[in-house]
Amino acid sequence: MSGYRIVDTDAGLAEVVDALLAEPRYALDTEFHRERTYFPKVALVQIAWPGDLVLVDPLEVDLAPLRPVMESDAIAVLHAASQDLEVLELECGAVPNILFDTQIAAGFLGMSTPSLASLHERELGFSLPKGSRMTDWLERPLGKGQLDYAAADVERLLDIHDQLLAQLEERGRVGWAADECEIMRTRWRGPRDPDEAWRKIKEARHLKGKPLTIARAIAAWRERRAAEIDQPVRFVLSDIAVVGVAQAAPRDIDGLAKVRGVDKGLAKGVLGPAILEAVADGLASDWRPPRLPKRPADTRDLRPAVALVAAWVNQLARDRELDPTLLATRADVEALVRGDEDARLATGWRADLAGGPIRRLVAGDAALAFEDGAVVLEERSGRPVS
After folding, report:
1. Domains in the chain: how many in total?
2. For residue 24, which of 66, 84, 72 has the smallest C-alpha distance?
3. Would the pTM count as exceeding 0.85?
4. Looking at residue 62, what is its pLDDT?
5. CB 13 within 8 A of CB 66
6. Among the residues of 258-341, which ranges form H helices?
7. Is residue 385 part of a domain?
């Protein structure tokens, strides 16, 4: 492991910011925990650029000064960046202005959601250190093994960027990858809507009438409470308890204490009245779940085609050396066949590669056939098989 330095002072971070503002690109990764908190708790930020690598300790310094770097025109190279972006937005108030996600890029080269370790092995023939992935990153002081592991995640990431970019350019897919990275970069990462929290409770989705309305009110209260005290929602009230309370609709503390998943201590404590208030809100609400949009009348007739088209899409992805899930999921195929205006296959590179041919198939201008064990899309002859 080559050299790296720890940044644990405001002055040290200011020097890093100054240096990064002069760079055209940088590699970045974060270590964080969220097992016992509602919001991710950042424990380390690793940043590398040519000639330097730093490990920023967010337990010692405020990360907000990194915002100008995020808003600069430098390319931020990250791997599987979704959760890192959430951390950066919380801590810096911004995400990188230009994102290159190596996992997304690798998908356009035929790799299916590769790990960072597999990318290092494939592109550089280098094995990342193991053993510290599940470590407690909030402990202090961090051991040398932990620090080496964290630094290795970004030490060669710019080299991987070079490798992937060259291959994307060779295949004419730089724009495709850039579009997908931009979708990830701009995806909504704001606070979860408490009124939609009930949808994450599997058992609640099967409720109807007042029990569903009550479950929605309790789940919304639980979501707000969890965010307020920065704890996972399950620490506030279990899913079983939410559904149990919704079905029982207790009117008093004694009734609440008898519900499965609600112990007497919880019911008789400070949260008991708040839960009962949520129950009352649910009982008084006239909310009803929105009706599902009506599907075109011919959807039922098209369903058999979806399976066949999905098989062709998977075949196309393999032939073009694309991650099949990056090209289209079965839901994406169904949306296009159904005629949804916002179907992913209806726009951009997906439309050029697969959406257009699928539309021709649905219109009857093309046909699917088996050839050498593969599903192929070909011009329709119009001659029926007798």
Report:
1. 3
2. 72
3. yes
4. 98
5. yes
6. 264-268, 271-284, 299-319, 324-327, 330-338
7. no
